[in-house]
Amino acid sequence: MRKLCNVSKVFFSLKINSVKKVILFICFFSLSYGSFSQNLVLNEKEYFETPGLNVWVFNNEYNGMFFDEKTAGIELIHHGVRTVTGGAIRLQNTPEQWDLIPKMMSRKVDKANNTIEVALRYEEFNFDSKVIVKPKGKGFVIDVVLDKPIPKALEGKAGFNMEFIPTSYVESNYLVDGKAGTFPRYPASNTEIRPLTEKIPQFAGHTTFDDRGRNEFIATLPLESGKNFIFAPENPERTVKIQSDDLDVMLFDGRNLGQNGWFIARSILPSNKKGKVMSWYVEPNAIPNWKREPVIGFSQVGYMPDQKKVAVIELDKNDTVLNEASVFKLSADGKFVEKLKTTVKVWGNYLRYNYAQFDFSAVKEKGLYYIQYGDQKTNTFQIEDDVYSKIWHPTMDVWFPVQMDHMEVNEAYRVWHGKPFLDDCLQAPLNHEHFDGYKQGPTTDTKYKPLERIPGMSVGGWFDAGDFDIQTFSHVSVINSFVESWEAFKVTRDETYIDQKTQFVDIHRPDGQPDLLQQIEHGVLNLVAQVENIGHPVRGIVVPNLHQYHHLGDAATETDNLPYNPALKPYESNGVSSGTRDDRWAFTNRSSFLDYRTAGALASASRALKGYNDELSAKSLALAVKLTNEAIEIEKKAKPDNSPMSRWGKGSDMIATLQLFLSTKEEQYKKSFLDKIWKLLDENLEFNMNPALLALPAMDDDYKVKLRAYVIKYKVKTDKENAENPYGVPVVKRGWGGSSQVINWASTNYYIHQTYPDLMDKESVYQGLNYILGCHPYSNLSFVNAVGNRSKKVAYGGNRADFTTIAGGVVPGLIFLKPDYLENKDDWPFFWGENECIIDGGAWYVFLANAVNDLAKEK
């Protein structure tokens, strides 16, 4: 009897729990239905929209060079934030960046039937599919249609995926068929090992997984599976419902394979079927009458008293511009008091938002301030005479030392990385298509055989960006810019200990030498090593395996640091060499373009290094002359070339001869420069203006007068282009952010102002810097890590898996996603186009910051 009572209690308890689950499930569905807003409509920009929600259907395509950049397929802009991407037919549960992507064959927008249809193809498998999206109720339906059944090789593999960015969903809940779960903050779901024969090959036979020779791969398993999902029901801005009548929907965590993975909803397409094989109903919650909060763009560093001060206010297209805004100042008693209240000027529409401008230039008193617009209040900023004086210090003190290749880099209690790539490099194999744009042609153009070791290369250079390769053209740009900073401003700051002999760097430790000269030396050492050991500058030096390329952490562990020895087995070592072929490869096909550009950098460096490292200075100049002469001979034998790279490299000979003239004062180089510069300015004014201005101090008055006419044309052209946006700077629309373009535009304006102050005022220089420091679209964060009151919290550096930054790095900024969206995420570091700091961008920023400080001295 007692036992029977216990059984009854258990049964009754189970019934109550089941009822609770049903009630919970109904409540969440009711909550969702109750809060969903008006129906989606297909707008003139060819995407579906309602307040709080945009649904893109392949407005942006997958990239054939970098494959899955998480910027393509069916995507959601959910209450102003892009949270979902990659809605497409995919061949893996959790696709990685370099997995195969579908090619969009066609895109049909049918306004009469309110549908968008895309045709997708996997050429490798002769597999075609159609994805059709149509609004229904408060959401939309996704149908997958096949004209033929799935190929046998893709059965159980081809499926429809939608990817949800983890930072919008971690620590939120989900419901699957009424059962509650939690999106994990860190991946800890199940995986299994499968034989390599079952794996869909990745791009060009590369692999992101080091299986240690075991011929296997990791397959992710689902967190959950069911017919009805609700994501983030407790967060109305992120709630999304997915319903599938026939096929199970599985939820995966892509971070098990790569830290840049997303949460993925996926249904496997059925085998042996054609016609409509899958149908999802997707209903993202749209808060009724939702409006995006205004973003007040301003400089996070602050302003100088007499500087022009204009905040740009970014508004939802359904918002109304307020008449006035105010500036408040911190008073002596610790309270903020209103110092200015003035009219807000309507600017108009740009892309998807409306804009207004708030000019508070009348505020000149030094102190601490904030701006208030309606209910929006900015963080505080300064008005001081020397507000820009230190803004470049983190870039030179921290970021560039951390980027130094072949060096152990220490900072106080922390070792940023050990001595990497002491194993030199190998000659890249012939006719090889690599990743990240690297290719080796049918010849090596060197004395080395494919995969033969190239000695003497473990010296100097910087990691190009967030990965650990050496890109020669980036080095050229950095060296040229650093020399400009040295010659224009004599930047003598010393906060870094650099010992080339022991290959050791210590941050925040002065060593009696200007850091700028030491960095120039470090870059030149690698260029000289290329010319002396390889025979000419090379496209770049990069790891051979894709599973190395995505390496995160200490660069010294990307290889075993032992030279490759083909006599040993893989992973075998004799203590001085290794049978593991992990040494970086040099991609060595020669071009006159790179010879000229490297010659220009070495010639300019020879001037800066004179008196600091005379031996390296003399060697740099001699090699610059040698490379220039050899490039001339190469061009004589070259076939006509109208490729994009050739067009981009046009004028490289002019740059080499300019730098050689500035270093040698020889008339032959001056004549060569003058023979080329005017035609190049006629062909591409903006691209060639900077070298034309650099030549000014060494030229006569006739040159100055002639160049003035080009400067006038340049200003008219750029003013017209920049007037198209409310920030008055060159905003580029592409998949790599435009911070560098703005910095270089402002730096060119500085050079113009120095010689033609009547044509270009210094405000155009400040304007470019203030854009980088926070007066830009999307947010008002400073794009320079750790500079300004509020700056980027994450960036795409070697430490990106830790969701942090390296101080002083300059992020690319805002990418453009068609048709109307600018984005720079600060919660997801893995968007390289938005967040990857590059060495030339850092060097250009150092120049601009010093240029602004130079202008501050003007009366």
Q: Rg to the nearest angstrom?
A: 29 Å
CATH class of the domain at 41-284: Mainly Beta
CATH topology of the domain at 41-284: Beta-galactosidase, Chain A, domain 5
Structural class: alpha+beta
Share of residues in strands: 15-25%
Give the helix level as a range of percent. Answer: 25-40%
Biggest sheet, spatial arrangement of strands: 1-2-3-4-5-10-19-18-15
Structure, described:
This protein is α+β, with helices and mostly antiparallel strands and 859 residues long. Among the domains are: 41-284, Distorted Sandwich (Beta-galactosidase, Chain A, domain 5), CATH 2.70.98; 295-383, Immunoglobulins (Immunoglobulin-like, Sandwich), CATH 2.60.40.10. Helix content is 28%, strand content 24%. The chain contains 16 helices and 43 strands. It has a nine-stranded antiparallel β-sheet, with no helix packed on it. A nine-stranded antiparallel β-sheet has the order 6-7-8-9-20-17-16-11-12, covered by helices on one side. Strands 22, 24, 25, 28, 29 and 30 form a six-stranded mixed β-sheet that branches. A hairpin with a 2-residue loop joins β2 (48-50) and β3 (53-57). The model is unreliable at 1-36 (pLDDT under 50).
